[in-house]
Amino acid sequence: MNTDIRLAVSFRGHRKRKRLRLLLGPGSTDCLIDLWLATAMNHPNGLLEGMDETDIALESGWEGDPQAFVAALEECGFLEKTDGGAYALHDWSDHQGYVVHAEARKQKARKAAAVRWEGAYATGNAQSETSNAPLPSPLPDPSPSPEPAPVPFPSPSPVPAQEERAQKPPAAFSEDSEPYKLAVLMRDTLKINLPTLKEPNLQAWARDFDVALRNDGRMSEPHFVVQVIKWACSDGFWRANIQSPAKLREKFDQLTAKMETEAARTRASTRRTEWQSPAQRRVAQNVAACVEAKSMLLGGKGGAHHD
């Protein structure tokens, strides 16, 4: 199964992406990327065989009207229909050639490994047959064995590799490094909400953040990790459960999902508050016009009260 896709940096300001956002609103391009990722895992050839509009919406995480979502993808040129009537991602093989040919590469690697294994097995058999041949008996050496040279000092016993590593002090992170800054941010944000928090080992926290930034794809963007830290360490529930970088990494998926849910709820609430019916807008415009007229007639004294 594929583990990544190719995404050009030009997609950030691409006309098609902007058009999709205008048609479906914020979050629609995230669903498009989720569709690409799911296709790379489940349909590496880019052909969505057996999938209708509802299946595509589910695969993308789109929670609105499936018909409208698929229609917008077609209108923007991200999706198309084949001659057989199945949906397919537009120019998928041109943009994701590495994904399309992943299975062929795996088969080629398996065959190469099999050839190497067979060669090693044949060589091992040849060596085994040679080793079974009788060895000539050694002739006795008539000369006396020389005495061993004296050793002036005893040789020190070798230090096991694990103990040697343990004796080396851990590398310190500078205060300007990203891992150390994240450790300080987490400590300070927690202490604002939990004044009794015990002072942590910032170097140990920085090591944990360094490992996450380098090895965990979810936490590879420091600015996004900053947002999650601020949200989690300020939330009434999560700040009592997320008190170390290790715990933050363990619950990262739950935290980001909760953040997205609350952000969507806030956007919906804002839209409901700002939205006005045509009649309400006309009334507001008439009131504003009356206030302006009174202000002009009364020399600025009529705008403070109404008759």
Count all strands and give the number. Answer: 3
Mean pLDDT comes to: 79
* Strand fraction: under 5%
Overall morphology: flat
- Count of folded domains: 3
Order of helices and strands: HHEHHEEHHHHHHHHHH
Unreliable residue stretches: 161-169
Could you characterize the architecture of this molecule?
- This protein folds into 3 domains: 9-100, Arc Repressor Mutant, subunit A, CATH 1.10.10; 178-274, no CATH class; 281-307, no CATH class.
- It contains 14 helices and 3 strands.
- 16% of the residues are buried.
- A hairpin with a 5-residue loop joins strand 2 and strand 3 (87-89).
- Helix 3 crosses helix 4 and helix 9 packs across helix 10.
- The chain has helices at 15-24, 28-42, 53-60, 66-76, 92-95, 97-100, 102-131, 161-167, 178-193, 202-215, 222-232, 245-250, 252-274, 278-297, and strands at 47-48, 79-81, 87-89.
- The protein starts with 14 loop residues before the first helix and ends in a 10-residue tail after the last helix.
- It is mainly alpha-helical.
- Helices cover 58% and strands 3% of the residues.
- The protein has a 3-stranded antiparallel β-sheet with strand order 1-3-2.
